[in-house]
Design goal:
Chain lengths: 323, 204
């Protein structure tokens, strides 16, 4: 009885359906009158409620179009043919994944997927870059090895050249190697008679220290020429030794390019030396031939016995001019 | 298991729906036979008695069962879930066609007058229902849906509260105020209603 007295405002419907106004308990009547104005209204509401509950029986129910079912079954059959979708749907068919279908999971999951894709993409780029760097390094190493072999072959070639080819003989060396010019001072004019009468001057005579006979002059020129040649050869041998020293010890262990540059410079100097030595030898021969030939011709034209001091001076002038 | 013309007829709705998720076409047919007519008429009443729209909505509703059976929550009763989907479809349609609502009302009224003129007997029988329909059209969408689910689809208060996602008390309160509102509008036909009740009683 107590339970029947505990009503909620929403329970008026059940009271209307089950009890007439005069059947209500006192508590129920007090409760009903809070929401319904009078007994007449209560009865009117009760009738309307019955009408409404009977309404579906009087309502005309329409039959759905049969084409709806046909279309649905056709759609079902077409979906059934799609094996991938069936497989995908059956994959998690027995598992309740509704807790995953929430925005709170969707956003972090999407972020994680993007992060994974980015990491994989970046690592792929790095790997490709590292592979490219490795290839470049291998290429550089191979080129360095080939350069080293080239330098080695160049060095060997330079050593062979330095042992076989003469070094250059510069013109200054030739000039410095020449003997000092001896001056002849002619004090007085002499006549042919005086010359003939006077005896041959002694070797110790300072004023007239040279024998001007044809044979002596010729020998003197030849000896002087030999001295020049020997002096020049001496200088050349010294320079050759210097070049050899440079070849063997003076090449600093620097970079590959420096080595190559040094080697090339050495090669150029060696080839210059070769050409210079060839040129200097030729010049020397020409010089000696000219001097000897000119002096000889000058001396042959005039009689040594009658050669004057001016003629001798002319010969020496000619000699130095030719030099 | 009762032996019927179809082996699935004795199965519960929830079991049939699980079979539909496994692409069982016969299970889908049984579900459609059970709820096709109900849902079509529900849409027909909720969408201003527009038959074309009701047809489209009913087809769209069952298409969801075909294409997205995983949307069904097996922990919920199938009937409640199906009405929830239909209820949401109607709510979306109300939001879309807020402007067109008046025009639909006019169409519905015209249809009622046309159908009421078919025969005198039918007019007497349906006069109350026509007036009721007109009164219902004057209610807002929520009250109309509550009324439809309660008095036409004959769902329980608990089912309505689950479908509309409100408390049971709210459903009861809404029903009471709907009753008061309709009572004031239908008083004119009170005599007719009594007469109809007597007529039905005499027929039995």
């Amino acid at each position: 009885m107590k339970d029947q007295l505990k009503y909620d405002p929403e329970d008026i419907e059940s009271l209307l359906l089950h009890k007439q106004y005069n059947e209500l308990f006192e508590d129920e009547r007090e409760f009903v009158l809070q929401y319904i104005g009078s007994e007449e209204e209560y009865e009117s509401l009760r009738k309307t409620l019955f009408e409404l509950h009977d309404a579906p029986e009087r309502e005309e129910w329409l039959e759905p179009d049969p084409s709806i079912k046909t279309a649905l079954l056709a759609e079902f059959a077409s979906e059934e043919q799609s094996g991938f979708k069936v497989w995908l749907n059956n994959l998690f068919a027995g598992i309740n994944l509704d807790w995953l279908r929430r925005p709170a999971f969707a956003l972090p999951f999407a972020t994680a997927c993007i992060a994974v894709v980015l990491v994989v993409f970046i690592n792929r780029n790095k790997e490709a870059q590292m592979a490219a760097n490795k290839d470049t390094l291998e290429t550089v190493n191979q080129s360095a090895e080939s350069e080293d072999s080239t330098i080695e072959s160049s060095r060997l070639f330079a050593e062979n050249l330095s042992s076989n080819v003469l070094p250059p003989a510069p013109a200054e060396a030739l000039v410095s190697a020449l003997p000092e010019v001896k001056t002849v001072v002619m004090t007085d004019e002499v006549t042919n008679e005086e010359i003939a009468e006077s005896p041959a001057p002694a070797a110790s005579d300072s004023n007239y220290s040279e024998d001007l006979s044809e044979a002596n002059l010729s020998d003197d020129f030849e000896s002087e020429t030999d001295k020049v040649v020997s002096a020049a050869e001496g200088k050349e041998s010294v320079m050759l030794k210097q070049v050899e020293v440079k070849d063997q010890s003076d090449i600093p262990p620097t970079s590959t390019s420096t080595k190559i540059a040094t080697n090339n410079a050495q090669m150029r100097s060696l080839s210059n030396a070769e050409s210079m030595s060839a040129v200097s030898i030729e010049q020397r021969n020409l010089f000696s031939e000219t001097v000897v030939g000119t002096a000889g011709a000058q001396l042959h034209l005039s009689d040594p016995a009658v050669a004057t001091a001016s003629q001798v001076r002319d010969v020496f002038d000619l000699l130095f001019t030719a030099k | 298991m009762a032996k019927g013309k179809h082996p699935y007829h004795s199965e519960h709705d929830e079991e049939l729906m699980l079979l539909v998720a496994k692409r069982d076409q016969k299970a889908f047919e049984v579900l459609y036979d059970r709820y096709g007519k109900l849902m079509y008429n529900y849409f027909h009443r909720m969408l201003w008695k527009d038959k074309e729209k009701s047809r489209d909505f009913a087809q769209e509703l069952f298409m969801k069962l075909v294409n997205k059976p995983h949307l069904y929550d097996p922990s919920r009763p199938f009937k409640t879930w199906l009405y929830s989907v239909a209820h949401n479809m109607c709510k979306n349609e109300y939001a879309k066609s807020e402007v067109r609502k008046v025009a639909h009302k006019e169409i519905a009224r015209d249809e009622h007058f046309t159908s009421g003129a078919e025969s005198q007997k039918k007019m007497d029988r349906t006069q109350f229902m026509d007036k009721l329909s007109e009164a219902l059209l004057g209610l807002d969408e929520i009250k109309r849906q509550t009324f439809e689910l309660r008095f036409n689809q004959e769902l329980s208060i608990i089912e309505i509260s689950e479908i509309m996602q409100v408390s049971e008390g709210t459903v009861k309160s809404r029903l009471f105020y709907i009753l008061k509102d309709l009572n004031s509008k239908l008083k004119v036909f009170e005599g007719i209603a009594i007469w109809l009740s007597v007529l039905i009683f005499v027929q039995f």
